[in-house]
């Protein structure tokens, strides 16, 4: 089942959270000179046009990146991410938004490398074209979880693996945990980040219990909710579960999440969360 297109949701509040966390992890890894590998298991198209029919149909970016874009003074934690967004829109008008692979491409150094996977028949050619001239990047049309078996551990023994499936199927919640287990067996010192949507809270609680049962330690949960949990249709929150997070990430997110919540949810509903699922 491959009907999901991120172009309908690009730049929404979930993307803002995901890309804030992603950029802070990358910046932390860059503090050491030794190169590292970036793996994106569900890459999407790479670049999104916010004036497209898909983006305009949902208008989700208007309650996401558009609200950040309008702010004159940004918290320091947002600068790596927002500098890339501003560079893509250098005429001052918000028209384009980077997916996670393009954000990584812009933030990584010359000696770092990227492995990107996408199965969608429409998005894969767009992703391949976006990275066709980047010698650091390998793009493949295959199950991203297979990359965790074939590409880990990296030769540098340093790496960041981002996993953000669409969760179209209930089995995706279990699959992402199994993917982490596979990767961790091969590369226990890597940083793994799982994006998740809160549609039914019970799915997230079950996924967290499955992660706890793996025996993996150093698991941090970061969440931003725009509405209270509900059994009605629609996403009320999203989050990132980070294994082996950089030591600064917990405090960085505690610093910036209140600002993000106030800016993205001016009506004040929902909540923010930064807590350890499993400590060190």
Can you walk me through this structure?
- This protein is an alpha/beta fold.
- It contains 10 helices and 10 strands.
- The strands form 2 sheets. It has an 8-stranded mixed sheet, with helices on both faces.
- The N and C termini lie far apart (37 Å).
- The mean pLDDT is 93.
- It holds the Pfam family RsmJ.
- Belongs to the RlmJ family.
Shape: globular
Q: What distance lies between the first and last C-alpha atoms, to the nearest angstrom? A: 37 Å
**Total DSSP E strands:** 10
Biggest sheet character:
8 strands, mixed
| Class per helix and strand makeup | alpha/beta
* Rg: 17 Å
Q: Give the CATH H-level superfamily.
A: Vaccinia Virus protein VP39
Order of helices and strands: HEEHHHEHEHEHEHEHEEHE
Q: Which architecture would the CATH scheme give at its second level?
A: 3-Layer(aba) Sandwich
Helix segment count? 10
CATH-assigned fold name: Rossmann fold
Number of domains: 1
Strand fraction band? 15-25%
Low-confidence stretches: none
On the 0 to 100 scale, the average pLDDT is 93
What is the helical fraction, as a range of percent?
A: 25-40%
Output the CATH class name. Alpha Beta
Active site: 164 (proton acceptor)
InterPro entries: DNA_methylase_N6_adenine_CS, RlmJ, SAM-dependent_MTases_sf
Site (Interaction with substrate rRNA): 4
Family: Belongs to the RlmJ family.
